[in-house]
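Marked as duplicate of an earlier ticket. Keeping the data here for the record.
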Amino acid sequence: MGNVVELDALPKRIISLVPSQTELLYTLGLDDEVIGITKFCIHPEHWFANKTRIGGTKTINIEKIKSLRPDLVIANKEENVKEQIGALQEFVTVWLSDVNNLEDALDMIERIGSLTGRNEAAIKLVQQVKQSFEQIGVNAIKNNGIAQYLPLENVESIASTDLRQHLYQPIKIAYVIWKNPYMTVGGDTFIGDMIRRCGFENVFEEQHRYPIIELQELTDLDCRLLLLSSEPFPFTQKHIDAIQEQLPQVNILLVDGEMFSWYGSRLVQSASYFKQLITQIQTLINSPVKGFKLSQ
């Protein structure tokens, strides 16, 4: 929003308006300082049960927040409403994050660490996330079109990365977050960045934010795999069954939406989840390459 945030002292009364950043504040050890959260801030469970709830991410209770006398509110450009943030700025300092990829998330973690006096813990967390995502990179290279055809143990026999990428194409996927209407994710979103880091090709990569789609588009775009997110719409097996009838040639999986969209300390868990997911997807859609023989 173009504002400079200045604090005279470390904040002692913090309100978080974003679930993933709430979990981050917990990880940084700010149990006493955080006094208010949203009804969607479900992690950690004891914060959800005991902290004062100030509404939803897009329906915050301004007067309730004012009554709590916070000295810092932590929000996000996408998840919160601009007009509500403006109203809060009339009486309290608001720090706003803007997270569209992993680099933004790591920068956000360090900045919140600086704002709250938890620099050391934040820097340590950033290093943990970086290291965990480096391991995903290894799997993603293997998955970049190769592992859709070959078991992992055979991938190592292709010595040249260039050869791997030349001979094989990434698995084309779509990631759906909402129903009625169906909504997906474009390449300029945080989820879009997570998809790329797993080595998949988002068939809606060139679109922006969260476009509305028709399921038939997936067939037209040669989508091989449809990922249905557990949030914000809670897709279940019954939705897979219904969609599978319309898209018999597309593999469909339910995935943990928190792992793809929460950009705070949950990122440490996300990396491990992605590695398992890549293996699961490889098992699901592997098929042998026709007319190509690997050199041993």
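See parent ticket for discussion. DSSP finds 13 helices and eleven strands in the chain.
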